[in-house]
């Protein structure tokens, strides 16, 4: 397992059983080995004190027997009894205080590792994921680490240790029948617990799956709040959510019913064993072979042994469930990182960038090709536009340039270097994008603009906002730059979100700019205003403009017409019009639509 300055990185467990997950936690225990050893020492001390309590109590009871009474002995023993009772709690609490750092650090490292891995996965994974279920898996998985470590070390280990100590006392002080009944009862108890718990775990897993599904539906519905409202489908969504909750309710009810069966069986086994042992002790006392103190001793030992055993079913169930929850979380770590830095990958040198697509083929799915033999070049500081109908593959060019995916065939180069030979961090640092749909974080405007360069000062953020002509709008808000934008930026209009995206791109100061249909969702007036800003920030930079409206790319150095994944025409605006091909046909259709829109606007104004 790899380690760095921040400690061990979580590694997906080997397949073949939930218990393999335990190996993943070993490095975290070794990192704090002295804390773990000290916690174990306190655990042993607590159990020794716990088993010593009934031994001292036996002496106290026997000391109170009129035939054996020595008044000084019970007083000293009572003081020792109280000290041992206190020591049991003291050592247990010291154990917890020492071990909590180990548990919390393991949770932090694993959660951070999963988070980083998820950001390292390809866009393909994130397009197919179900956010609600995935976040619930991570939540349960991290909580499972705490449960597993606590129960495994502080429940299973103490039970084993206490059982060994009780067995030693019974064998030393009583005949073989006491140990035989105790061992037999424990064996039956454990067998019953494991069999029933395994059956219950299947029910619990089903309940967890249904819980994740219900959570997925709820989050998906809330994220699409506006769409739900548009179609008046609140009750439809509530019905779908309730359907999932109903299934979860049934599974959860079955889980609780099976828990009752487990507890009843455990109590019956314990009651039978304790009753049998009490009969043996009572016979010994009646025959004057044993003292009243022995009766108290056996009763105390058995209570101390069976109380933790009584929770063993729950502990075993929780451990197995924690392993299952962690396995679901670690399964995310086993997701293949489709795009990775090659060994020896180099950083993209800062400065002007020349972009070259050479015979690029690409398909999201093998049976459906998106790009076929696409070749073009964007010289440093020039602007190339790509136009075409929806589904022609325009936005795929941007995704490949960002290396969200690797090309299926051919090569994509920047300054002559294949992007697969560049580090992803340096590649993406050199590219800025103004997308069609700007999605903002549910935070302040200041945070969202600064996201382009997190280390930027407030003054630099304001300068970027001024350059994007959004400063005046922000300054007019009551909270100014501290104003929150809402979930996905819903508190801002389309034009305002686009200006925030422009400010963010300006602040990043990239060598390469991508405008992915950046104005297609805006009205004509907002489009003209935003278009002027886009042209201004693109000056002197290498720019790839993906557009639907041809009027926005008339001044591009070269225009490519993409159709069914192939470049069917290329040239300047004038050259393409003169060619009377697909571009000219698209231009004529859009001009007719624009003229009709102008007539409609004049009619409204009149």
Secondary-structure blueprint of this entry?
Layout: E1 3-4, E2 7-8, H1 22-31, H2 33-63, H3 72-120, H4 123-128, H5 131-173, H6 176-223, H7 225-230, H8 234-286, H9 292-310, H10 312-333, E3 355-365, E4 368-378, E5 383-387, H11 394-401, E6 409-414, E7 417-418, H12 424-429, E8 431-434, H13 445-450, H14 458-467, H15 471-475, H16 494-508, E9 512-516, H17 524-538, E10 542-547, E11 558-563, E12 566-571, H18 573-579, H19 582-605
Parallel strand pairs: 5-10, 5-11, 8-9, 9-10
Antiparallel strand pairs: 1-2, 3-4, 3-6, 6-7, 11-12
The CATH first-level class of the largest domain comes to: Mainly Alpha
Arrangement of strands in the largest sheet: 8-9-10-5-11-12
CA-based gyration radius: 35 Å
CATH architecture annotation name of the largest domain:
Up-down Bundle
Structure class: alpha/beta
The tally of strands reads 12
Q: How much helicity do the residues have?
A: 55-70%
CATH superfamily of the largest domain: ABC transporter type 1, transmembrane domain
As for the CATH topology of the largest domain, it is ABC transporter transmembrane region fold
Strand content: 5-15%
Shape: elongated
* Overall mean pLDDT: 76
Uncertain spans:
1-9, 12-17
Largest sheet: 6 strands, mixed
* Number of helices, where a helix is a run of at least 4 consecutive DSSP H or I residues: 19
Whole-number total of structural domains: 3
Q: N- to C-terminal separation?
A: 74 Å
């Amino acid at each position: 397992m790899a380690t760095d300055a921040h400690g061990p990185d979580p590694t997906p467990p080997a397949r073949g059983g939930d218990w393999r997950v335990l190996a993943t936690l070993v490095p975290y225990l070794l990192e704090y080995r002295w804390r773990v050893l000290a916690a174990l020492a306190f655990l042993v001390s607590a159990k020794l004190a716990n088993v010593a309590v009934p031994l001292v109590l036996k002496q106290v009871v026997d000391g109170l027997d009129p035939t054996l009474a020595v008044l000084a002995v019970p007083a000293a023993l009572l003081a020792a009894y109280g000290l041992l009772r206190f020591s049991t709690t003291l050592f247990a609490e010291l154990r917890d205080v020492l071990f909590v750092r180990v548990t919390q650090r393991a949770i932090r490292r694993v959660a951070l590792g999963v988070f980083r891995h998820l950001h390292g996965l390809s866009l393909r994974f994130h397009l197919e994921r179900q956010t609600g279920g995935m976040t619930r898996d991570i939540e349960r998985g991290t909580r499972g680490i705490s449960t597993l470590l606590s129960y495994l070390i502080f429940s299973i280990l103490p039970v084993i240790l206490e059982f060994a100590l009780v067995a030693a006392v019974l064998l030393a002080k009583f005949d073989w029948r006491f140990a035989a009944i105790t061992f037999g009862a424990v064996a039956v108890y454990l067998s019953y617990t494991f069999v029933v718990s395994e059956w219950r775990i299947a029910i619990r897993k089903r309940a967890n799956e249904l819980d994740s599904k219900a959570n997925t539906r709820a989050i998906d519905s809330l994220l699409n709040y506006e769409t739900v409202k548009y179609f008046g489908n609140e009750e439809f969504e509530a019905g779908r959510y309730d359907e999932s909750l109903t299934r979860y309710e049934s599974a959860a009810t079955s889980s609780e019913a099976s828990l009752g069966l487990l507890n009843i069986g455990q109590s019956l086994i314990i009651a039978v064993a304790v009753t049998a042992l009490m009969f043996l002790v009572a016979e010994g006392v009646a025959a004057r072979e044993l003292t009243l103190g022995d009766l108290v001793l056996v009763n105390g030992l058995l209570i101390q042994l069976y109380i933790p055993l009584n929770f063993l079913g729950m502990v075993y169930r929780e451990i197995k469930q924690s392993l299952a929850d962690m396995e679901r979380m670690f399964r995310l770590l086993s997701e293949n990182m489709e795009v990775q830095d090659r060994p020896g990958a180099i950083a993209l040198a800062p400065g002007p960038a020349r972009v070259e697509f050479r015979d690029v083929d690409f398909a999201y799915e093998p049976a459906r090709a998106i790009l076929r033999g696409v070749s073009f070049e964007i010289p440093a500081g020039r602007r190339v536009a790509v136009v075409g109908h929806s589904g022609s593959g325009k936005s795929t060019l941007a995704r490949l340039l960002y290396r969200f995916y690797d090309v299926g065939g051919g090569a994509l180069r920047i300054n002559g270097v294949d992007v697969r030979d560049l580090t992803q961090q340096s590649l993406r640092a050199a590219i800025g994008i103004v997308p069609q749909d700007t999605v903002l974080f549910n935070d302040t405007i200041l945070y969202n603009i600064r996201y382009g360069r997190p280390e930027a000062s407030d003054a630099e953020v304001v300068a970027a906002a001024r350059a994007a002509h959004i400063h005046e709008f922000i300054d007019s808000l009551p909270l100014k730059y501290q104003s929150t934008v809402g979930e996905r930026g819903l508190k801002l209009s389309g034009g305002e979100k686009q200006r925030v995206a422009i400010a963010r791109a300006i602040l990043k100061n990239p060598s390469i700019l991508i405008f992915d249909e950046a104005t297609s969702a805006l009205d004509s007036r907002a489009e003209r205003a935003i278009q002027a800003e886009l042209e201004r920030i693109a000056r002197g930079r290498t720019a790839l403009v993906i557009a639907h409206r041809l009027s926005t790319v008339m001044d591009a150095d070269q225009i490519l017409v993409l159709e069914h994944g192939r470049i069917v025409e290329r040239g300047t605006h004038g050259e393409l019009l003169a060619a009377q091909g697909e571009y000219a046909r698209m231009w004529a259709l859009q001009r007719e639509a624009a003229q009709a829109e102008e007539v409609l606007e004049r009619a409204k104004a009149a």
